[in-house]
Amino acid sequence: MGRLNDRVAIVTGGGGGIGGASARALAREGASVVVVDVDEEAAQRSAASIAGLGGDGAFFRADLAEEAEVADAVAFTTSRFGRLDVLHNNAALTDSDFLTRDTAVSELSLDVWERTMAVNLRSQMLTCKHAVPEMVRGGGGSIINMSSGASLKGDRTRTAYGVSKAGVNALTMYVATSHGKQGIRVNTILPGLVITDAVRAHLDARMLAGLGKATLTPYVGEPDDIASVVVFLASDESRYITGQMIAVDGGMSAHVGLAGDD
Ligand SMILES: NC(=O)c1ccc[n+]([C@@H]2O[C@H](COP(=O)([O-])OP(=O)(O)OC[C@H]3O[C@@H](n4cnc5c(N)ncnc54)[C@H](O)[C@@H]3O)[C@@H](O)[C@H]2O)c1
Fold it and tell me: What angle do CA 135, 73, 139 make, to 5 degrees?
């Protein structure tokens, strides 16, 4: 028996590195999974990989910054699978060209700020808005938002990204508080560095070793390190955990590192 048999899940940004891994991990535990992504080909590939595992997967193309498209994605899920139990709110703007335009505040253009808030934060509010009534109808559910360690600290760059993820932290507590008594649990994962295929393609071995100094673990995390926590938070094993921010970062946030070699 899988831990998520008979459950239905949406994974947003499920065509990407972490979303793809969590879609497959949820399916391995028995959930039917709808991969929602603005990149239709990537979503299709991810759904096919679920089918390749013998799982039950489907895909839906949507720009989750747009409310009508979010509503359509949720309606597709309930008409295809009859219910909705799990939402992994994982989509975000990660395109490296876009991120280089996300600068210190003094140089930040309003279009970068607005698009970041729309894709990273408004989308998570909209998916919660449309998923919660379906989950309540089915007797409850689990929402796993995706934040970042960058939401708890400042930096000289990526101002919009960090602030959008700080909004995700607050959204998590508000939705958890509003709908907890209706059986909805909401938590957010704060990943540190996670080496997806896309990240790996931009790093050579020396850069990877340098980044490895930031973690306390002997290795830098991979998408499956996040996916296993998504499965735990989706399952009844975590039934008394809600409204929480959970760092999954190899201890990156747990030390100062001033010595330079730790
Ligand atoms: N990889 C890391 O090191 C890391 C660290 C901290 C947080 N995160 C967070 O983890 C999540 C997944 O990141 P990833 O590294 O797997 O990135 P990724 O680029 O592989 O996946 C992101 C996915 O979101 C989709 N997406 C983008 N805009 C969308 C929109 N408007 N509507 C629908 N889908 C859209 C993309 O097409 C892509 O498939 C993100 O929320 C990211 O902020 C990642």
Answer: 10
Give the number of the atom of ligand 1 that is nearest the alpha carbon of residue 95: 19
* Phi and psi based region of residue 159 (left: phi greater than 0; alpha: psi -120 to 50; beta: remaining): alpha
pTM above 0.70, yes or no: yes
Domain with 90 in it: what CATH number? 3.40.50.720
Calculate the alpha carbon distances from 125 to 69, 97, 100, 113, 257 in Å.
13, 25, 25, 17, 35
Q: Give the integer Cα–Cα distance in Å for 215 and 219.
A: 7
Over 90: is that where the pLDDT of 258 sits?
no
Q: Residue 237's CB: how many other CB atoms inside 10 A?
A: 11
Nearest CA to ligand 1 atom 21: 16
- What six digits make up the tokens of 16? 């990407």
| pLDDT tens column, 172-185 | 999 999 999 999 99
Distance separating alpha carbons of residues 4 and 28, to the nearest angstrom:
9
Segments forming the whole domain that contains residue 70: 8-244
The tokens for 102 are 């996300």
